[in-house]
Amino acid sequence: LHARYVLNLLHETRKHLKQLPNISHVSTCYSEEVTVCGDLHGQLDDLFLIFYKNGLPSPSKSYVFNGDFVDRGKQSLEILIILFTFLLIYPKEVHLNRGNHEDHMVNLRYGFAKEVMQKYKVHGKKILKMIQNVF
C-alpha cells in the first residue's frame, strides 16, 4: 500500500481512537457470538485462518483483538492495516486492545520498527512515528 494511504489510514485510526474512552465495555446478547483473538505477532496467516474459520468482521460478527499485533513475525504492518481498516468500517463490532508489544521500545527490540523501515524506506520514519502515536 502506498505510504500516502498508510498515513491516511493511521490518521483516521488515531482520530477514531481519540474519541473512545480508555476502557471499553463490550457486551452482546446471548444469541450473538464474539471472537476474541490475541497475540498475532505479525503472523498474517494466523489472522487469515481466524477470518476463514469465523468469518470477516461485520455487523453480525464481532471481534475483540487483545493486543500484541506486531513484532516477531514478518507481516506486522499488514496486520495493522487490516485491523485498523476493519476498526474504521465496523467501529461497533471491532475492538482493539493495546498489548505490551504496542510500545516503541518493544518494537525496537523485537523487529517491528525494522520491518516498517524496510518496507517504507523513504517514508518509514514518518509512518513509524504515526504508528507509535496511534499505539
Automatic annotation (TrEMBL):
Molecular function as annotated in GO: Hsp90 protein binding; metal ion binding; protein serine/threonine phosphatase activity
Leading EC class: hydrolase
Which Gene Ontology BP annotations are present?
Answer: negative regulation of MAPK cascade
Required co-factors: Mn(2+)
Q: Which residues form the Serine/threonine specific protein phosphatases domain?
A: 97-102
Decide whether keyword Hydrolase is in the record. yes
Reaction(s) catalyzed by this protein?
O-phospho-L-threonyl-[protein] + H2O = L-threonyl-[protein] + phosphate
Name of a matching Pfam family: Metallophos
* Protein's UniProt keywords contain Transmembrane helix: no
Keywords attached to this entry: Hydrolase, Manganese, Metal-binding
State which Enzyme Commission number(s) the record gives: 3.1.3.16
Q: In which domain of life is the source organism classified? A: Eukaryota
The entry sums up its family as follows: Belongs to the PPP phosphatase family.
- The protein here is known as Serine/threonine-protein phosphatase
Q: Which gene encodes it?
A: Ppef2
